[in-house]
Design a protein that fits this description.
Length: 151
């Protein structure tokens, strides 16, 4: 007859077998490079390399792609364009100027009649109609509303 102690011993045996299996681990940079290089050579399949080095095949594919992407840089591939230097003070000054102009226009527009502001909406302009309506301070729905001619 099987007892609770027998079940506990079986569970311990199973657990110790589980602990003996090595979980997948991260390889060092040099080891990853070697695996990626082996994948580029194509001597073994990804599944074989994954089993040999105890890593997932997707990880090997990522390493291989990174290696191939950066290999051209080593031999003077296409030169990367230098990023233009940006003067932050100039950008901040431009932002301030635009903010002042927007405030001025907003004040001037609110003094106009609704029909005049509605006439300012340009349906062919790349700026969305919703944003144009916000700028001229009218409801978006009124932009689309057209008065029907009475008979």
């Amino acid at each position: 007859m099987k007892t609770a102690l027998d079940d506990e011993e079986i569970a311990r045996e199973n657990w110790s077998e589980h602990e003996q299996k090595t979980p997948p681990h991260a390889l060092s940079g040099t080891q990853g490079y070697k695996v990626a290089l082996a994948a580029v050579r194509g001597d073994n399949t990804l599944a074989e390399l994954a089993q040999q080095h105890d890593v997932h095949p997707n990880q090997i594919t990522d390493w291989r792609n990174q290696l191939l992407a950066k290999a051209a840089d080593v031999f003077g591939g296409e030169p990367r364009p230098d990023e233009p230097t940006v003067d932050l003070n100039v950008l901040l000054a431009k932002i301030g100027q635009l903010a002042l102009e927007n405030d001025f226009l907003e004040g001037a527009l609110t003094k106009r009649r609704h029909a005049e502001r509605k006439a300012m909406i340009d349906r062919t302009h790349p700026l969305p109609i919703t944003r144009q309506a916000q700028i001229v301070n009218i409801g978006r729905g009124s932009v689309y509303y057209e008065v029907l001619a009475t008979m």
